[in-house]
Amino acid sequence: METKSPFEQFEELRIDRISREFLTETAKWANFLSILGFVGLGLMVVVALFIMVIGASTSFGPFGGGVFVGIFYILIAGFYFVPINYLYKFSSNMKNALRTNNQASLTSSFEYIKSHYKFIGILTIVIMGIYILMILWGMFAAFGRMM
What we know:
- By secondary structure, this protein is mainly alpha-helical.
- It is 82% helix and 0% strand.
- The chain contains three helices and no strands.
- It has helices at 17-56, 65-100, 103-146.
- The chain crosses the membrane at residues 29-54, 66-88, 119-143.
- It comes from Chryseobacterium taiwanense.
- Keywords: Membrane, Transmembrane, Transmembrane helix.
- This is DUF5362 domain-containing protein.
């Protein structure tokens, strides 16, 4: 005879009052952090444009180092936009779900927070891989100089 877990015995999980309070507070903080993230993105783009203008006006010409640094900043801002947008959509859908008891909004909010953490996890793995490659490259470069 097959035994089911406690979660499989229920067709639906219910959100009690305490869980609702926790989710409400989580949605408020997620909204706050996402707004701060969007402000940071705006500042990052402004700084990138400033660096590009200053870099283009230097004696290095239009393809000076400042242009490449500015483009790099804009690319970083593009990567940063994705998880911040997921976080904002989580918070707005969660607030809507709790306010209107809308199951579709609740499900959507959990989908966005899953996507947020999935993106952050994959990005962390990629960055750790880059760090490992840089360390190995540094070790081989140091070993090559010793020879």
